[in-house]
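Dear support,

We are seeing what looks like truncated structure output for some complexes. This example has two components. We would appreciate it if you could run it in full and send us the complete token output so we can diff it against ours.
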Amino acid sequence: MSRSLVKGLRIGCPAGLVEFLENPPLVGDETVEDYAKFFRAIVADLNPVDAINWLYTRDVVDLAWQIRRERAVSVGIIKLKQKEVVRDLLKATVDASDPAKAAVFRIFSAANEAESWASDPAARKEIDARLAARGHPPSAVLAEAYMRAARHIDAIEKRIALCEARKVAIVREIERRDAMLARDLAAASAEVIDAEFSEAAE
Amino acid sequence: MASDRQLAANRRNARKSTGPASESGKQRSRGNALRHGLAIGADRDPLLRADVERLAQIISQARNESGVTVTDRHVALAEIDLLRIRKIRASIFEAFNKSAQSPANLNQLHEQLRKLDRYERRAFSRRRRALGSH
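Here is the complete output from our reference environment:
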């Protein structure tokens, strides 16, 4: 557990609640430090005043974190599809004047070149130029990748929209509770003042 | 109604079953565990019951009540479910990240998250109803 997150939670968070908030379920290369930074920023913004608002704040953090995670998956899918498109274009546009050589390229080299395109910036530049010369500029490759990934991107975007809607509803609820607590506080202080004045008048 | 002979045959055949053999069958079977895990309320899980009680007490204090009410327990239950759902969601993403990220893996990711969302939606609704809010 990151000390930074626990430290962040201890500022104002009801003591018993820390154990429920301190273990964020992280994935892959997500770090507790990043999560803690994110958490602190949202806590500073929403300023939770009681346990219920702390739970709501944690929801907002997790929903925002989820959106970030979904976007990372989306980027990963596009990259994967771009690689696929490059491989298919390399196969489709290979110089067919020597059929045997072209067949060998299609079977063995195209996938390797697509792999290099994805991992080596110099190879990427060279392959992009080659494909552009054959009528397939990088923008066309990207567009085709989006087309191929459309169904998956659509599913991800729907989940992101759902997270956004839930996040907005929870932030509104925090604001509503803050206003209610402020009203109660104002009413309570007015009662105290009234009581003091009536005592003084007696 | 099945005869004794049929019942005996059913039992014999059932003993031959060794669970799902195909990869898709095994995946479905893993899904069953996930579904049933969430279908059981946190209050029925001895490991989580104490968490629900502790959280209900904290919620009760936040609501300025003299003792833990049924509403506090409902809120705590929904909250514990939300925390469980987030852990399961993370494990689904983790499994996807470690996979070949093929179209089949992606379809599986969408399907698992779709199922999980049903539980999350219900948990949010239960908490909202209990707190009489959003």
